[in-house]
Amino acid sequence: MSATPVWPEELFTDLDRTGPVPLYYQVSSRLEQAIRSGRIPTGARLENEISIGEKLGLSRPTVRRAIQELVDKGLLVRRRGIGTQVVQGQVSRPVELTSLFEDLERTHHEPSTRVLSHEVIPADETIAEKLSVAVGSDVLRIRRLRGTDGSPVAILENYLPLEYTDLTEEDLNAKGLYQLLRARGVTIRIANQSISARRAHADEADLLDTARGGPLLTMERVAFDDSGKAVEFGHHCYRPDLYRFETTLVAK
Amino acid sequence: MSATPVWPEELFTDLDRTGPVPLYYQVSSRLEQAIRSGRIPTGARLENEISIGEKLGLSRPTVRRAIQELVDKGLLVRRRGIGTQVVQGQVSRPVELTSLFEDLERTHHEPSTRVLSHEVIPADETIAEKLSVAVGSDVLRIRRLRGTDGSPVAILENYLPLEYTDLTEEDLNAKGLYQLLRARGVTIRIANQSISARRAHADEADLLDTARGGPLLTMERVAFDDSGKAVEFGHHCYRPDLYRFETTLVAK
DNA sequence: AAGTGGTCTAGACCACCGA
DNA sequence: CGGTGGTCTAGACCACTTT
């Protein structure tokens, strides 16, 4: 099939063996950049793992791990007896564990926020179940309108347990919810999402500047921190002409 | 924090060291079952990797890999200096690389299919780009109505390169597209998906037995095989009251 | 100080593929 | 047959968290 395998060794001349950045990560991130930039072309075959290890002065497991990272991202394909190839076809960014705010920032749009409401309410049955708290216990409810480049994009309704009720409106106007949580030492580790669609209610249509009864893209999410405790339950709706969810799936 | 770590050793008494099933997979799948069934409760702390390895007669890397599988699935959380814990909160199934047909089968619904059209057409610009073929080259276009339990759920429009034009209508009525491709030795490895929403066109509304102009959940997908070649480009729409996409995201 | 997971090494044997 | 990735071993050192 493909004739000579490629390995741009010059990209890996200055690996840092003393710093805190893992070797496999240094290799995989540089390799990823080389692929995304086209420096290594689509369909190219990589050298085998052992020779790469020899050239880089790394053990095979370390090289394997670096390659595996990119296989998991859908950039490379490995086949036993054949070798490792760069996937053909453009690669889209997977849905990551970030907030809409960061999504927009990353794509060079100017995110804006308006806090619509910010109040402590007793948890109803749904909220209590999602957040694993008692029915009737106090939770913080926030509702925000998120926009970009002057257009409203989404209405975000979030519920947080009592311990986060001191998040202020000013905080929320300036930063994304996940950024604020991170700044308080809370790391979101796992999230369960459910994506669907429905008609816009009248107030939602007005806020999003779209037709009443028109289609909205919806996302429900429960997010958990490192220790597995529920941190946030959210119920969001997006203007489908301005937002969509993109994923790369990789079969194992 | 959590007092005594747990390890239900009795679940791992008969590991098969000779068969084709990897040891790490045997361990991780049994562990997964024990967690999903509640045999190991939510929030429980697991024993450390080295003692597990000793008890099972496995090396630490093998045990680590088994655990890592479940971390990636969002069932376990590892923290340095702390240990490994079962995540609290229910875990939903991630979006997997399967077709709608298999999704429905797995959830014990009775999938039905009606092939609406099945024809060879020249590729327009969009299709040609997605499938990496020349504009104007022949591609197979199929349009199917998928239902479950008597209700129409989705309209599936798919485009496949020339080499698959011999897929017949009878095949497609009986099985899912991905099943048919697998039977021909084609494995889908990577897919890029984009999920959004829009209004239903009149013909779609009639087919799906829903309101004209009502909301539809949409998904566009390009799927690639082992070698990275584009195998299928699809444009689907779903009744949002009967279908949604569920995902578990895990931060790395 | 003790215990945990995170990384890394230097081998080994096997299954699968192509020539 | 030789070359490839897939799995597995038995160690090692380190960073981080709790006691």
TrEMBL record, chains A, B:
Residues 21-89 form the HTH gntR-type domain. Gene3D superfamilies: Chorismate lyase-like (3.40.1410.10), Winged helix-like DNA-binding domain superfamily/Winged helix DNA-binding domain (1.10.10.10). The keyword Transcription applies. This is GntR family transcriptional regulator. Keywords: DNA-binding, Transcription, Transcription regulation.
